Amino acid sequence: MSDESQICPKCNSPYGYLDGALWVCPECAHEWTLEKVEAKAEIVTGPKFLDSNGVQLQSGDTVRTIKDLKVGGETLKSGTKVKGIRLLDDPVDGHDISCKIDGHGSMYLKCSVVRKDS
Known about the structure:
This protein is mainly beta. It has one helix at about 35-45, and strands spanning about 15-20, 20-25, 30, 65, 70, 75, 80, 85-90, 95-100, 105-110, 115. Strand 9 and strand 10 (about 105-110) form a beta hairpin.
């Protein structure tokens, strides 16, 4: 009886019940359909990979670092160009970009420390 459709999307009450084609919340009297809940879930998730300026990133994009980054004893300077990034669905220690940087090799970066290169 722990169906997610029973949870009210308005007040999060777990006591929703099916009444014909609608789900009804006995606590706040909100009525909803499964289609509305699924559509709202898609909207809430939104774009996953945003750079430091809020611009959507895609695999293959070219980005630049926005600040100096310490990489194994060396410093990756602000403004370093990174070509052909690969976005990771499963982040590695909070890093969601896999890339190769000339002179530094393969590494992971966070979307928050890069900006999309125009």
